[in-house]
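Checklist before submission:
- one chain only
- standard amino acids only
- sequence pasted in full

Submission:
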Amino acid sequence: KDGAKLYKVDGATGAILDSAFVRGIVEHSVALSHDGRLYVPMLPVQSLPPGNPYAPTPGISCFSASDLSEIWFRRISGPGSDNSPVLGFPQHPDRVYLGMVASPSAPASVSCPNRHLYGLDAGTGEIVMDVPTEGWQATPGAVDPDGHIYFGCGDIREYCETGVPPAGVEPGAFHALTGSDDGSHLWPVFFA
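Returned file contents:
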């Protein structure tokens, strides 16, 4: 109801126990790590509600789940992240993975340069992996027990070349990464 807020809720009663301001719109689930950290992706917003001390900024914040204090914030260029972050357990517990908004409904000047999957250091927010993609990742990926990262994305390459949005269903691409910080692929990109 207030916008740009993170709420801590009692699971049994639904009572609001605490809240914290954030820097933008949160449209997807946050990720909760085993050590009590919340990873919260944010999209840009024109303005924030009164009392919010932040400037509207797309990015990802890491909060303490116990008291909702912000541990770190990483600004993400372009329109921000429109998915739920994925934690790198069990092989990479020090990583959080995040895809970017790159929609054909947005101007090509915004979407086309921002087609990335990022791996961030879970403790500091530093970007340690940057994988160029064909489009946006609107859903979270998955990490298997061997640390391989799997995710799908829209394929807006033709839109970026021609400026003409796809008609009907947007084509897609599926990635499988080794999990190393160099962003290497486990197997070639599958196009659908």
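Reviewer check: Helices lie at 108-111, 157-162.
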